[in-house]
Amino acid sequence: MAADTSSGPTEAPEEEPLNLYRFPALYDTLKTPDDEDITAVRALMRRFVGNGPWSILDPACGPGNWLRPFAQEASRLAGNDNCPEMVEYTRQTTGAHTVLGDMFELAFEDPFDVILEASGVTSLLPDIDTLARWIGSFRRHLSGRGAVILMLNFDAPVPDRLPATLWRTPWREVPGGEARIHYELLRDEPENHSQQIRRTVETRGGDWPRRIVESYDLRVWKREHLDALRDVPGFELTACTDPAAPAKHQAQPEGERLLVFKPV
Questions:
Q1: Do residues 80 and 103 make contact, with C-beta atoms less than 8 angstroms apart?
Q2: Considering the entire predicted model, what is its pTM?
Q3: What residues make up the domain containing 249?
């Protein structure tokens, strides 16, 4: 009788977790910037760069949802991202010159009037030194009148009981169906300036996954971090402003703030 060479039942390979970032059209719809934020960014462009048209670069462009609002006011749009699906989607939907690459090693020849990152990438960086180094790397990509405009999330009061809902959208139309997104704060660690977030996407209709659930850590910057950013080589921190009140510069950092850096 032949020997039994089987090693018993084998487990099926674990499926790769779904990632919203791999679905550009879905991400684009659910993460469309608010009119208030777009208006605030436009006001800062006019104040610190001058009247358009502007050449605009988003160094972590995603689906181009922060390039698209300014397409009619731009002389040139460009985006960089490390996700091939996002790069192709942005190219097709905005007409921007898009590059697949590392946001720390931008590969554009001509300078830009505005380098804009308002999607929250700054909260994914590990520490203030990395954030400062990233800002410093923009210097050679700016025109003489240029400005860097970044959205940073500073610490703010948190709910007494966790988990807690931070933000939930209504159902929105997506190609072939509808989708909505729900953000929850699971854990707050002020000593590490970190928060754990859970993002849940639900869809109905179309060929989308019915549910995408992701958890990730966000850096929540503090007042002392803002002070550290005043020393980024080659730049002056010119404004820190609440998107809801863009005329009030140098506001106390709490919650979302738009920061403007001018080259020196």
A1: yes
A2: 0.90
A3: 20-155+222-263
Distance CA 177, CA 205 (A): 4
The pLDDT tens digits of the residues spanning 9-22 come to: 445 444 457 899 99
Assess if residue 6 is contained within a domain. Answer: no
Please indicate, yes or no, whether residues 227 and 211 belong to a single structural domain of this protein: no
Residues 6+ apart with CB under 8 A from 227: none
Instruction: Let me know if residue 30 belongs to a domain.
Output: yes
Are residues 58 and 136 located together in one domain of the fold?
yes
Query: What's the structural domain count of the chain?
Result: 2
Based on the fold, state whether residues 64 and 169 are members of the same structural domain: no
Q: What is the number of other CB atoms lying within 10 angstroms of the CB of residue 71?
A: 14
The 10s digit of each residue's pLDDT in 183-236 is 999 999 999 999 999 999 999 999 999 999 999 999 999 989 999 999 999 999
Place of tokens 């006001």: 43
Mean pLDDT, rounded, of the chain: 91
Please write the tens of the pLDDT for every residue from 227-251.
999 999 999 999 999 888 777 676 6
Closest Cα partner for 41 from 69, 75, 62, 72? 69
Q: Give the CATH number, domain containing residue 49.
A: 3.40.50.150
What's the first-to-final CA gap in the chain, in angstroms?
A: 84
What does the pLDDT read at residue 1? 41
DSSP characters for 157-181? Answer: ---SSSSEEEEEPPPEEETTEEEEE
Q: Are strands 172-174 and 194-205 parallel, antiparallel or unpaired?
A: unpaired
Same domain? For 122 and 77 the reply is yes
Q: Are residues 168 and 96 in the same domain?
A: no
